[in-house]
Amino acid sequence: MTTSAKKGTFAAETIRDPRWAAVGARDPDADGKFYYAVKTTGVYCRPSCAARPARPENVGFYTTCEEAEEAGFRPCKRCQPSRPSLAEQHAAKVTQACRLIEASETVPVLEDLAREVAMSAYHFHRVFKQVTGLMPRQYAMAQREKKVRLELDRGRTVTCAIFNAGYNSSSRFYEKSNKVLGMTPSNYRVGGADTEIRFAIGECSLGSILVAQSDRGICAILLGNDPDKLVRDLQDSFPRANLIGGDADFEQLVARVIGFIEGPCIGFDLPLDVRGTAFQQRVWQALRDIPIGQTASYTEIARRIGSPNAARAVAQACAANMLAVAIPCHRVVRQDGVLSGYRWGIERKRSLLEAETEVELKA
Ligand SMILES: [Zn+2]
Q1: The pTM is what?
Q2: Dihedral, CA of residue 312, residue 314, residue 318 and residue 321, to nearest 10
Q3: What is the CA(302)–ligand 1 centre distance, in A?
Q4: Which of 38, 166, 331, 332 is least enclosed, having the fewest CB within 10 Å?
């Protein structure tokens, strides 16, 4: 083959790869999912790098920084692919600020918070709003109200208000489990503790949120008004599982899920542990394919999964969804566009759709 023919083959291969489109779009959602390297410069980049676009015949894709470096490429100075992404840095700073707010007896001054996380007040305010959907002051006020509400028997609040530090030690969990789970520890272990599921409860703009994770990924995101009821729902859904209260690391995960719910444009990139029948899984996958800011009818989803007469079964699969927002069953509406049922309440469905429409308008 001649050199130019080889180039053509390489180029065609790159162009066929869906990752090339993400590079062309400088898609920040693709960051962390892969890296691309440029043969002519010897440098590898994140998909969102602002560097001048490379020619497709010179581009190769790698899943991790290590792979790119093993292949002899060095990190781009501009997008610094081996360092935490901007979104990750922002999330870390916002989490840190949330902790400071939660630990503070009074509502902290914006400038003080910004200084603590080494940002300008202006930039910090913007980033905080972007990640949490709230201004720092609103968040602080909400925290204070919550503290008053919860102080009676639930101990102090922690990151994004995970409500019960008592779950952190198993002995205290057992002490409380009768009250929280409505059954005794020996009962709930009947059937064999074949799975360990960690969970924690926080507060978000939609009310209380329970996030649970198995060793395979996030297995439940439940929304509601009553934290105890959320724990019961979890228990009912995983009756044989061994439920364990989340530790400090787990709070970070909850904070990330909350960040995703508050800012739909962030994109949900955490692994999910989706459990359901083959039919339910097909419905849920079709829901995940509905773009943000758009809706589809039950009939339409039924058609998309190749079962055009199964609209009712689609609605049932939506109602059985354990992963609020991550599997966006809120994007399914009646054929006439009316918001129909939602496992977590019609008002939450409305709020979610409104927030997503705003994102779409801004984009
Ligand atoms: Zn770069």
Answers
A1: 0.48
A2: 120
A3: 42
A4: 166
